[in-house]
Write a structure and sequence with these properties.
CATH topology: Metal Binding Protein, Guanine Nucleotide Exchange Factor, Chain A
Helix content: under 10%
Number of domains: 1
Strand order of the largest sheet: 6-7-8-9-4-3-10
CATH architecture: Beta Complex
CATH class: Mainly Beta
Radius of gyration: 14 Å
Strand content: 35-45%
Number of helices: 1
Number of strands: 10
């Protein structure tokens, strides 16, 4: 595994995510939130993600069922990561917010507008030994 750093636009919120070496599949979701924000998902387990600075600058937005916890930098408004409803035991990191994602991800479509009918993504955030 390789820890990759990322952050919001203004640099207040910083994070690291442990990504498997080689090319990781990222998902371009079609749900109402991701479509409007351009979020490209890399799913990680809780142990493979950490906020390194700016946690106190995060603001939260919840809607509909209230399960997904959308976290935004209160200063610049960028959402670099959040806890998704489709996978509440892990984190979803925005590939666009990584400092350097070159050669790291391929983007695959994901029908988030109808996520309940899609194959589960839970395996993507399972702990790996």
């Amino acid at each position: 595994m390789t820890w990759r750093a990322g952050g919001c636009h203004c640099g207040t919120v910083r994070f690291e995510v442990d990504i498997e070496p080689g090319v990781t599949t990222a998902r371009a979701c079609t749900c109402s939130m991701c479509s409007k924000t351009g979020f490209i998902h890399i799913i990680a387990s809780k142990s493979r993600f950490k906020i390194t600075s700016g946690e106190d600058a995060l603001t939260s937005y919840k809607f509909n069922t209230g399960v997904a916890n959308h976290l935004f930098c209160a200063k610049c408004g960028v959402k670099g990561f959040y806890v998704p409803r489709s996978n509440p035991d892990g984190w979803s990191v925005n590939a666009r917010c990584l400092d350097d994602a070159s050669g790291l991800v391929t983007v695959e479509p994901f029908d988030g507008a109808n996520w309940e009918q899609q194959p589960s993504l839970a395996h993507l955030s399972e702990e790996h030994a």
